[in-house]
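User
New here, explain this?
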Amino acid sequence: MTGSRTGIPQQPTFIAADGRIPFPHTDQILRCRTNPQMFEIEDIHSTAENSHARQTALTTANRACSGCPIVTGCLKWALANPDLTKTGIWAATTARDRAELRDRLVERLGADWVAAVVDQDRRRRERQREVRVVPPATRELALARLELEDIPTRPEPYNRWTEPITPDRAASNRRALVQAITNEAA
């Protein structure tokens, strides 16, 4: 038995989305979520009263997509999931546009073009993270160079008000005084 007799309910078919490209997320209010009927243009047909009804609806939907912050992610998701996006406007593209784009991607990147796109996105994110690294300051570069050259840094100057006088310092002071006195006398 095939289960196609009338009166017997059929299980709904579940079509899973390609998990490699996640559906884009944003907290902003989007036209496609507040007014999804605007993007369903398949049911709109031109009539004698309005000969450009379908074209007008397509233009309106494309304008709504043009300012969307997730339009790129939406297009990638729609292209990666053809069974879930058979109808409607997705990222300002019709079903025919998406089929053409998929064919071009297959020609350019191969049959598993989704994996190639995911890899390109990963590399792009890594490059963006590398760009955000703040370059070290000149002082930090100089200190790093000194550490590499193993040159000892100059000691802090002697502060006579906070440090005790060591025997070496006392001898140095005596020599300076003796020299100053002998030079004055001469």
